């Protein structure tokens, strides 16, 4: 039997989500989610822009759900839902978690998305949370496009330090953020989605492999779909990962090039 958590929280969603998506990304036992949400007999929360539905989850998972919401909604979404019917709408959380809201103590900076950029990189360069960056710009599923203007808020006392980021090269921005990464993710284009919260670097000693540094929001499925021919199983096997939902922020993952 699966033990029920002592404390629970309620997440209100406006997009369809399958309980297996939540279980797969958060690592919460599916049976526990089913026991906490018996009203969803087919494991599907049939939310949309006109109908909100509530999901009960263990309270200790609330912040992770918020940080990983894009990964949850994207996790095997082609398996669970008809893509043509999916419409991205805001998610509301009924909990004590708060996205940081800008005030008159903040300066508004504008960043123009370049080819190869992603939400994780941009958040890292400006030293803000990816959750806040998505909220400020109404970004869903981490999808951004080349040429898109993004708003970034920084405290007035430190904002001047970040004003030149928009004019820097990728390598300069990585150096500014204190990263040793010198190349953009393989296969990156003008619009990026999954895998948007990890740094990638090419190893010099073995050109057949790429080293991937995990950040908040990543799943093996997100990472794998950035590399043609690579599956989440390939990555898990190469890195001796037995539980695919248990990768950690800062963990170094090796990926073998295909083709």
Helix-strand blueprint:
Elements: E1 8-13, E2 17-18, H1 19-26, H2 30-36, E3 44-45, E4 53-58, H3 62-67, H4 69-74, H5 77-80, E5 92-94, E6 106-112, H6 119-126, H7 130-137, E7 149-155, H8 170-176, E8 199-202, E9 209-213, H9 220-224, H10 232-238, E10 252-256
Antiparallel strand pairs: 1-4, 1-5, 2-3, 6-7, 8-9, 9-10
Report on this structure.
It is a single chain. This protein has helices spanning 19-26, 30-36, 62-67, 69-74, 77-80, 119-126, 130-137, 170-176, 220-224, 232-238, and strands spanning 8-13, 17-18, 44-45, 53-58, 92-94, 106-112, 149-155, 199-202, 209-213, 252-256. The chain is α+β, with helices and mostly antiparallel strands and 259 residues long. A hairpin with a 6-residue loop joins strand 8 (199-202) and strand 9 (209-213). The strands form 4 sheets. A 3-stranded antiparallel β-sheet has the order 4-1-5, with no helix packed on it. It has a 3-stranded antiparallel β-sheet with strand order 8-9-10. The chain has a two-stranded antiparallel ribbon with strand order 2-3. The chain has 10 helices and 10 strands. The radius of gyration is 19 Å and the shape is globular. The chain folds into 3 domains: 8-94, no CATH class; 106-176, Membrane-bound Lytic Murein Transglycosylase D, Chain A (Roll); 199-256, Membrane-bound Lytic Murein Transglycosylase D, Chain A (Roll), CATH 3.10.350. The termini are far apart. 25% of the residues lie in helices and 18% in strands.
């Amino acid at each position: 039997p699966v033990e029920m958590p002592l404390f629970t929280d309620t997440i209100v969603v406006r997009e369809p989500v399958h309980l297996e998506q939540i279980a797969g990304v958060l690592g919460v036992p599916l049976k526990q989610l089913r026991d906490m949400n018996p009203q969803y007999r087919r494991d599907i929360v049939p939310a949309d822009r006109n109908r909100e539905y509530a999901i009960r989850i263990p309270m200790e998972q609330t912040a992770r759900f918020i940080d990983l919401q894009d990964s949850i909604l994207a996790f095997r979404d082609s398996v669970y839902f008809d893509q043509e019917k999916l419409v991205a709408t805001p998610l509301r959380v009924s909990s004590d978690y708060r996205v940081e809201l800008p005030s008159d103590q903040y300066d508004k900076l504008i960043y123009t998305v370049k080819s190869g950029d992603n939400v994780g990189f941009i958040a890292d360069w400006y030293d803000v949370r990816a959750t806040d960056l998505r909220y400020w710009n109404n970004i869903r599923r981490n999808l951004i496009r080349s040429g898109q203007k993004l708003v970034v808020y920084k405290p007035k006392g430190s904002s001047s330090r970040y004003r030149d980021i928009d004019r820097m090269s990728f390598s300069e921005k990585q150096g500014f953020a204190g990263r040793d990464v010198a190349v953009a993710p393989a296969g990156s284009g003008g619009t990026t989605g999954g895998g948007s919260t990890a740094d990638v670097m090419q190893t010099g000693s073995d050109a057949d492999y790429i080293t991937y540094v995990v950040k908040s929001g990543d799943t093996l499925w997100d990472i794998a779909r950035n590399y043609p021919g690579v599956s989440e199983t390939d990555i898990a096997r190469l890195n001796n990962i037995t539980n695919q939902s248990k990768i950690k922020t800062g963990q170094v993952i090796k990926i073998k090039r295909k083709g």
